[in-house]
## 1
Amino acid sequence: MIDARTQLVGLIGWPVEHSLSPVMHNAAFAELKMNWCYVPLPVPPHEVATALAGLAALGFRGANVTIPHKRSVLGVLSSVSPQARALGAANTLVIEKHDRKAIRGENTDAAGFSAAIAAAGFSAAGSKALIVGAGGAARAAIYALIEGKAETVTVLSRRVAKAREVVDWFTVTRQSSTRLRAAGLNAESLIAHAADADLLVNATPVGMWPAVEGSIWPEGNAVPSHLTVFDLVYNPDRTRLLQQAASCGARGISGLEMLVQQGARSFFIWTNRQAPIESMRRACKQQLMHEAGRMG
Ligand code: NAP
């Protein structure tokens, strides 16, 4: 029951209607019988600073941040964790207990990525990774793979300049043994690079609901069976790309696992309690099935 003692967290984004985070976190609070509540908070871009000040004034404990605010919030936070700074984006905010006007930014996306590949039995160390896309999700994946000591990370983007920009950012900001490369994205380059890779990551929205028949992998071509294919898209849970991988005997990882793992880390940051990951995963899957049923 929501009462005067309910602790509040929420999601700041624009839009936020389709996010799974409210059902995921509220399922976790229910499982642990915690008097907490997670609310969606639609905030247009020009209202971000006002919304953050309001969060603190209303006694919120923290918030998640999603598109399009992950980068822009950095400018209005009191402090930013080294990881969020390195990624140039925050997805988790904490209202500091000692000073309710102070808001700290963290990033749990890269740790969520690492946990998801580890749970699938994939070891980043010494691996060759191929990332398709050069946006925020790609940055989290690149950071995680550098931290995990991958041998090479190749970023393919339809605008090669964007892939170069991301590679240059990490080359300058993270001194590491991982070799970073950028190249243009087309069917031929994807197939050629994948032949030599251990991990293929889809960090584009291709295949996301409602365009569920879309895939970055060209139809009619076999996915190399030695590849681990990680589709960061989580709606649907089993994307066209993951279906193509499975039909060729390649191992697949759903973006839902990264969503749940990053959520579990945000949950711990706010509550100092281990998240009930299985309940969170189940709640997300149920919500996706419910939405799929509703949409026909
Ligand atoms: P973003 O910052 O907008 O970046 C999207 C990237 O995909 C850009 O490089 C974009 O290239 C490329 N792209 C878009 N449409 C494409 C197409 N039709 N063909 C080829 N490339 C295309 O978005 P993001 O935040 O990185 O999110 C990407 C995906 O990851 C989304 O589906 C999101 O839901 C998912 N995601 C999942 C998690 C998780 O926890 N599982 C977390 C974050 C994001 P251009 O610049 O050329 O448009």
## 2
Amino acid sequence: MSAELIRSDIGEGILTLSINRPDKKNALNLHMYKALADGLIRADGDEAVRVIMIRGTADCFTSGNDLADFLSAPPTGPESPVMQFLTAISTARKPIVAAVNGLAVGVGVTMLLHCDLVYVGSGATFQMPFVNLGLCPEAGSTLLLPRIMGHQRAAELLLLGEVFNADKAHTLGIVTEICPDGNVVETARSRALQLAAQPAAAVRLAKNLLRRDYAPQLRETIAEEGRQFIERLKSPEAAEALQAFMQRRKPDFSKFN
Ligand code: COA
């Protein structure tokens, strides 16, 4: 199943990982996280791969973690597929290019913080509704977002969890370039080809140096966020938010302090 939901193709030095579950807005389940983690780990050791590209389908990048999985198979620790994915993407030695069309929600946004070049369609929308779900931010976003844009702008995105557009994402500094919708994958691929033609060892070194000063703190932050996230999944607030999503109603948090 995971082989279809995450497509993996290698050509011209580029490993393309395509998220392909359009009927669920490309929500990432356990098998998909595992397939993404495996693909990233394999790419690191495969000499045929010089660049990794991550994309979704024509009108959706990903709606984030599968919310049904949060109820039926929540992450339990560092060995969970989601944590394996976050470790793999945040420590990848080779450059990662993202092509984002349409929706990017939750980890669909925070994974972009670990990509090197991020191309998005002009109609793409972004949202990090972790707090809205009674959860907490993940993927090192509590360290990386304030570094990129300052506390107050990061806090707005994380505490209010509202949808924002491609222009705002670009202004805030989490996107490399906005492309016309329909041209995103082509732009990302041509940049990936350009990267693949660069001297690979020099690219890897530069990427590593770019992260050197915050890498240890990032590892620690991802682990701490992960621990807190697992606890939050057991909270009454998260239970209310997840039930509300399943029942297609607005959550009511007024009874919790
Ligand atoms: N997990 C599980 N299923 C999801 C999902 C997710 N993250 N996102 C969408 N789906 C499913 C919907 O339940 C629906 O399934 P159904 O057709 O079997 O009922 C299908 O995908 C289509 O979604 P729908 O809500 O009808 O589409 P929409 O265009 O109205 O809204 C979203 C799209 C992404 C805005 C909305 O689905 C949403 O808010 N999803 C949750 C996003 C989220 O909170 N992610 C986790 C962040 S930590």
## 3
Amino acid sequence: MSSAPLILRSFFKKFKKTKKSNFEIDFKKIDISLISVHAIKTIEILEGNGFEAYIVGGAVRDLLFGIKPKDFDVVTNATPDQIHRLFKRSRIIGRRFKLVHVIYGREVIEVSTYRSKQKEIPQPDGSIIKDDNYYGTIEEDAMRRDFTINAMFYSPIHHKLVDFHNGLDDLKFGIIQMIGDPEKRYQEDPIRILRAFRVCAKLNIALNTSSRKPIEKVVPLLHNIPHSRLFDEVIKFFLTGHALNSYKVMRNENIYSQFFLSPEFETKEISLFISNGLKNTDLRISRDKSCNPSFLFSFLLWHQVCQLWDQYKIELKHSIGGLNQAIDEVIEEQVKLFPIHKRFTIAMREIWRLQPRFENQSPKKIYRLLLHPRFRAAYDFMLLRCQSNQLDQGIGIWWTNFIDADHHKKSLIVNQLTRK
Ligand code: ATP
Ligand code: MG
């Protein structure tokens, strides 16, 4: 069993727990300022109309950890129709199990009705159909969630934490534990394998032994997950503020190679390049800047391209031809492993193909590169190469000065090049 970092332990000491019943704990010290006012308003309206309502899942886990949750889910005993009637700006979504999106400008609070256990309905031919479209109790709802730390309910109005599975203790000790039989639950929904490691990376905690044991056996099931769901989940590893840690966890757990090609040989230089790329990504997310998946994939796969490029430029006796062939091959192999949509691979190709052009000193070509629609991403990528000592730092400095200069100064800078 791994233990939580010291900081976390002392954080939890701050809470004075008074057990009211077995499962309900008075919990006054969650930092209310971290909670979305819209989530609170949604709960107030539901409660004001005689229903129960709680914040649930990852948002509660993050609040207990002192992190601002990225989204808020609310559960209630009101049915979707009842919820929809209470909120003018809401819509019912989902075909089988319906839930409600309550819309507050750019923020959406997802409100769902407590779900019951999956019902197994025997068929005349002896087979069993699993039906999971029933509403249930709060306790049944907790049972259906994945990990104990994701199955807590919190009322910001009554300052009450409802915790049927000792999620609070697990969080305190830094462990992720599956609810129910881990192997069955991974089989039921293999995305839980990724969710487990994503929480490990996000909170720097670890899977407990019983939840880890079946992983090796169930990992092949990852490839049964529908592409779009898989893509979204893998992207969350990298574009939610903990990319560097995610990369480490995925590599250590042999998950990374399920989705991404790795270079034929690894060097310190490659590790530095990737960790700089991941650090920059985390920094951008912390500053609320956008991050495009194509840039991420470009730097994760750059060295596979480079290693093949070295080979093909000799074979083809043509540098650019070699680069193009390397790019084609890497993309072809990569998409077999993990479905990267064409709109991203188009951008990746451009980012890579533009790299040699940063070293070209012809004024005409410099201006043409500046006007290229993918210039900004390719420029950032070139800076990453400089930052990681893969390209002469002077090239990065030259381009930064050039793009920062006004029209007149730009031509002076270019003229200096031609005079050299
Ligand atoms: P984050 O939002 O930080 O990525 P999260 O745990 O909140 O993490 P969500 O996708 O927002 O993830 O899911 C909200 C909650 O729904 C989870 O905390 C968990 O209780 C439940 N949940 C989500 N996906 C599953 C699943 N595949 N199996 C069981 N429960 C799930
Ligand atoms: Mg969430």
